[in-house]
Amino acid sequence: MLPHRSRLSVLVFLLPPLALYVIAVLFPILQSLVLSFFQWDGITDMEFVGIDNYIRMLTRDDIFWKAFGNALVYLAVCLFFQLGVSLFVANLLTYVGRGKEVVKTLLLLPAIISTVAISFLFQEIYSFEPSGLINQILEFVGLGNLATPWLSNVDTVLVAVSAPEGWRFLGLYMLILYAAILAVPKELEEAARLDGASSWRVFTEIRFPYIRPVWITTMIMATTYSLRGFDIPYLLTNGGPGQSSELLTTYMFKTAFRSTDFGYASTISVFIVVECIVAVGLIFLLLRRRSDVTS
Amino acid sequence: MKHKKRLAIAGVAMAATLTLIGCGTPAGPSQEGEIVGREISWLLSRPADGGIITVVKEIADEYAETHPGFALNLVTTPDRPSYLQKLETLAAADQLPEFFDTDATPFTRKLVDQGKLVDVEALLKDLDIYDDFRPLALDYQRFDDGSLYMVPFEFEMEFFWYNTALFEQAGVTVPETLDDFADLCGPLRDAGVIPFALDGQDGWPLARYMSYQPFRLAGPDYLNELKRAEVELSDEVGTHASEWLAELGSSGCFAEGFSSQGYTDARDLFTSGQAAVYQIGTWELAALTSPDLPEGVKGNIDFFTLPTVEGAVTADNDYTVVSGIGMGISQKAFDPLVEDFLKFLLSEYSDRIVETGHMSPIAGSDVVIPEGASELYARALAEVDNLGDETAFPWDTQLDPTTNSRLQQDLVLLVQGEITPEQFTKTIDATLAENAPKFFD
């Protein structure tokens, strides 16, 4: 039992953010949930349609399933950069003596550049006619036959729109993981090295197990952000060509604001919420089980 | 930091909620009473530095001199999807400004049915200016029941512009029918030229191509029936149109990677002499007749109108003629000031817009040809005297928004050869069956 003054402090400090959370997060989610059972175009009366929107989404809407598949690929590409490459770079940085700060700053830079600027940048990089950076490099190294309009080719466009998002926040996650690696007790590593452990073993046996909680948090952050990814694909290709780079988020946005089908868009948004919750649950489940096995 | 973020989110959420709160009852038009100066707004989707905004601003300033307190606030969002999003949100909140740009889309029809727009036909007749408008300019703004709720501010014809030197080089001539288009592409490709410049990013230019065959083969009614799902795109007409587009794609008629090329990319391909044909309206005349065009292009641009087809039901001089996005007038905000300003605006507009080198939707004022422009400028505009009575309506203003999006997306796949004409028509028919009833019941 908390003393009276402490209880008051808890109330004073916790209630306002809790109230804001309810108003700003829970309430809109609940509102979306309610709206998902209606057909509504924003101007005429709402019409209750029961679970028809859900039936439509799950059984009659091929774009939805295409967008869902695309969202998973988008997630995979983002996680590759934000968890894989960033961990590799963070680990590498601990061995670098000079220029560490410069590398960190350079890698962090894209995170503070506006999305629109990044989109323009990649539009040029991927360009085919006139030849953009990637196609020029391919030409230069003699792989000109691989040159393709990256954003118009249905086989390459999805990875092409996902990579900028992964690259953009690589620096941020790298910094978090780098900080975690720095906190690994030096004496443990030194002892291991004295016993003849290689850098790889130091990483797998000492560093990674030590930073696992941070890595899980990073994974949850990266996963939920990626599942909600919207701006770069929307700006680069607007989901095209066809639906080749359509994500659930861009599809939801178009359904709401182009088709003025707010009810159905809410149904998709409910699905995105559920998808995020399931993803976080799965991460916890899998990683906890694995740590149970290893401990 | 967290609190700040939450506050921001709460702010956005509350704003969104407030804007989404239902609609009120529209007030009747109040044309009687005293004119009281106040600020009025026009939400536009036109180029910020374009002729229309410049001319309107000029006229509004003059009106303000004699009407103290009056000001016209012009808010433009040239990017159409962003604009429509703003418009829809404001409409949902019943906060439409005095004037706002919109096409005769199914969404606007809903606003009309809710009594939110002023009847423009009645208003123009009241102002005694109705008969001065070019009939095609008004027809473009009409809903398919003939009612008119938008004022046009443009009048443009759409042509196929072509580079005579490149045609000669490839040994091809102007196609006589639409079905001859694909035959152009092989020789032009062999000559190292992109046959047709196309802005694939925006969706509407390719949808124009989709509209041509049905317009020629079945007339303007086809679209009216199609959008209601009364005919199927998988019928003979729709199938022919889809196969024609697929053939254009497989014949290499469009640039590789056209789907990520934007409006100016396509124009630049043509004006730099890399592409041989460019479909666009007379609004681009200044760029097409500019004295700054590179050698090899300058003096080599000519045009042809929409070719016919075998068994065509529309005349050769019927093709796409547009009067641009129209201006709707909010019924709720309509008062003597708005009416009086509109009267002044329309009486002054025509003589001034022609000075910018553009045609006016109001007949009677001759366009002032920009200095240095080639003879093509006047020759192209002279086509206005040869126009027929029918217009090939752009499909993007007529179809329900969901079908429209799907059509534009899948057209790219059709032309790129990712889907067959059969798959294409089947998908569009299914989308129409699902969505058309929501707008046209």
Q: Termini distance of chain B?
A: 50 Å
Tally of alpha and pi helices of chain B: 17
Give the neighbour order of strands across the main sheet of chain B: 2-1-3-10-4
Beta strand % of chain B: 5-15%
Name of the CATH architecture of chain A? Orthogonal Bundle
Largest sheet of chain B: 5 strands, mixed
Q: Number of helical runs of chain A?
A: 13
The main β sheet of chain A shows up as: 2 strands, antiparallel
- CATH homologous superfamily label of chain A: MetI-like
What is the H-and-E element order of chain B?
HEHEHEHHHEEHHEHHHHEHEEEHHHH
Widest sheet, order of strands of chain A: 1-2
InterPro entries (chain B): Bact_solute-bd_prot1, SBP
Keywords (chain B): Signal
Organism (chain B): Pseudolysinimonas yzui
Protein name (chain B): Sugar ABC transporter substrate-binding protein
Commentary on this structure:
The complex is a heterodimer of chains A (295) and B (441). With 295 residues, chain A is mainly α. Chain A has a single domain (61-294), classed as MetI-like (MetI-like fold, Orthogonal Bundle), CATH 1.10.3720.10. Chain A is 74% helix and 1% strand. Chain A contains 13 helices and two strands. Chain A has helices at residues 4-35, 52-60, 62-93, 100-112, 115-126, 133-140, 157-168, 170-182, 186-194, 199-227, 231-236, 248-257, 262-294; strands at residues 38-39, 47-48. Chain A has a two-stranded antiparallel sheet with strand order 1-2. In chain A, strand 1 (38-39) and strand 2 (47-48) form a beta hairpin. In chain A, helix 3 (62-93) packs across helix 7, helix 8 (170-182) crosses helix 10 and helix 9 crosses helix 10. Chain A is globular and about 75 Å long. Mean pLDDT of chain B is 89; it is low at 1-30. In chain B, 44% of the residues lie in helices and 11% in strands. Chain B has two domains: 31-152 and 324-360, D-Maltodextrin-Binding Protein, domain 2 (3-Layer(aba) Sandwich); 158-320 and 390-440, D-Maltodextrin-Binding Protein, domain 2, CATH 3.40.190. By secondary structure, chain B is an alpha/beta fold. The longest helix of chain B is centred in the C-terminal third of the chain and has 20 residues, at 421-440. The N and C termini of chain B lie far apart (50 Å). In chain B, the strands form two sheets. In chain B, strands 2-1-3-10-4 form a five-stranded mixed sheet. In chain B, strands 5, 6, 7, 8 and 9 form a five-stranded mixed sheet that branches. At the A-B interface, helix 1 and helix 12 of A face helix 1, helix 3, helix 4, helix 16 and helix 17 of B.
